[in-house]
């Protein structure tokens, strides 16, 4: 798996009591960058 530039930043900000919004066009990797650090955790993913 490719390590994205923002992946470490996202991982450090997770579960601090605030929402993280990642926006981008279709097939740009927005789901992949959020799904990797959350594999073994409970989370809500909203796609709209």
Question: How are the SSEs placed, and which strands pair?
Answer:
Blueprint: H1 7-13, H2 30-35
Brief digest:
With 48 residues, the protein is an all-alpha fold.
Properties at a glance:
single chain, 48 residues, mainly alpha
Question: Helicity level, as a percent range?
Answer: 25-40%
Overall pLDDT level: 78
Strand content: under 5%
Which regions contain 5 or more consecutive residues with pLDDT less than 50? none
| Number of discrete helical segments | 2
Q: What is the helix/strand order?
A: HH
Count of discrete structural domains:
1
Got a strand count? 0
What gyration radius follows from the Cα positions, in whole Å? 11 Å
Overall description:
By secondary structure, the chain is mainly alpha-helical. The chain has one domain. The chain is 27% helix and 0% strand. The protein has two helices and no strands. The radius of gyration is 11 Å and the shape is globular. The N and C termini lie far apart (25 Å).
